[in-house]
Write a structure and sequence with these properties.
Layout (H helix, E strand, L loop, with lengths): L9 E4 L11 E4 L4 E4 L5 E4 L13 H7 L33 H18 L3 H20 L3 H16 L8 H15 L6 H6 L5 H14 L9 H11 L4 H16 L8 H16 L5 H8 L3 H14 L8
Antiparallel strand pairs: 1-2, 2-3, 3-4
Helix pairs in contact: 3-4, 3-5, 4-5, 5-7, 8-9, 8-10, 9-10, 10-11, 10-12
Length: about 325
């Protein structure tokens, strides 16, 4: 008695009833009970249905075992729990829908689209989450960072922090906070370049959200920038490891006081490039790190002097 494509509803068991000793026992999965067919006594209750093995290893088995839709996603306004009327004018069998029914389907689609964003909060989320996805794509952020940014924005909406403020500004602040939380930091300059906002406005909005939502985050670690800058500059793993080793010495000697993490990362990468022989100019590194060449020169000279690193003269 197994429903096709679904769980088992009833199953005959081998055993004896505790009351009458009958061997006619049935397991009811819809109630989670083992019942005697003769006297009706419930022998077991609260049993767990562990289901069957839903793993698939090819397309054919995947099609046979498929029983659910797409997973829920916090990146969607309704978390992906609603249904959508498709735009294809065909039925489930692929046949074309009669012409007299197309007008009715058009009206149903229109009203469904309106009802999905009936309240102001839903309309706000619909636009804001699309902006989160756009900004994250422009910054090259993975899905976990996007989900974190969407979660922070939802908390801001629940606490009524969006009213009276631009959606783009709140989204930019949420994305910046998400990059810090996921240890994939992006600078305020990088975020402002991909929005119509000034870096000061993004920073002010971020501080407001951090204060109201009690978000506490440590300052960005320079080593997180080293990995990304090394990838953008197409440096070898030896150079990246060399820069990370220099950065560890800088942190141990507490030479980071008053220095921005991006400038320190750029300076250590420049020193590592000189030591390993990979030629990268200060202007190339400055363009990737969004700092000035003067910052790189002052930082790398200070680091080389404090750590007593002998650099070859250019």
């Amino acid at each position: 008695m197994r429903a096709r494509g679904g769980p088992v509803e009833e199953e005959a068991l081998n055993g004896h009833c505790k009351n009458c000793g009958s061997e006619h026992l049935t397991r009811h999965f819809d109630h989670g009970e083992v019942v005697c067919n003769d006297c009706g006594v419930v022998n077991e209750d609260l049993i767990i249905d562990h289901g069957q093995d839903w793993r698939s290893f090819d397309r054919e088995s995947d099609a046979k075992k498929a029983r659910t839709g797409a997973p829920t996603s916090i990146l969607l306004p309704d978390k992906g729990l609603s249904t959508v009327i498709g735009w294809r004018d065909t039925d489930t069998y692929g046949k074309s829908i009669p012409a007299q029914s197309k007008a009715q389907l058009y009206r149903l689609r229109k009203w469904q689209r309106r009802m999905r964003t009936s309240s102001s909060t839903e309309r706000n989320l619909s636009y804001a989450l699309g902006e989160v996805d756009r900004l994250s794509s422009a910054l090259g952020l993975p899905k976990n960072v996007r989900s974190t940014a969407a979660l922070v924005y939802r908390k801001a909406v629940m606490n009524n922090l969006v009213r009276g403020r631009t959606i783009e500004g709140v989204v930019a602040a949420c994305v910046y906070a998400a990059t810090r939380q996921c240890n994939m930091p992006r600078t305020l300059n990088e975020i402002s370049l991909n929005t119509h906002l000034d870096r000061k406005e993004v920073g002010r909005m971020y501080r407001f959200l951090a204060r109201e939502l009690s978000v506490r985050m440590l300052p960005a670690h320079p080593e997180d920038y080293i990995k990304r800058y090394a990838l953008d500059l197409k440096l070898s793993s030896d150079t990246e490891k060399k820069a990370s080793g220099i950065m560890k010495q800088v942190m141990q000697r507490e030479l980071t006081s008053g220095c921005g993490p991006t400038g320190l990362a750029a300076a250590t990468l420049y020193i590592a490039c000189v030591l390993t022989g990979e030629k990268r100019t200060q202007s190339e590194i400055a363009a990737v790190a969004h700092v000035t060449e003067v910052t790189i020169r002052s930082r790398y000279k200070c680091i080389a002097d404090k750590l007593k690193i002998d650099l070859p003269k250019p």
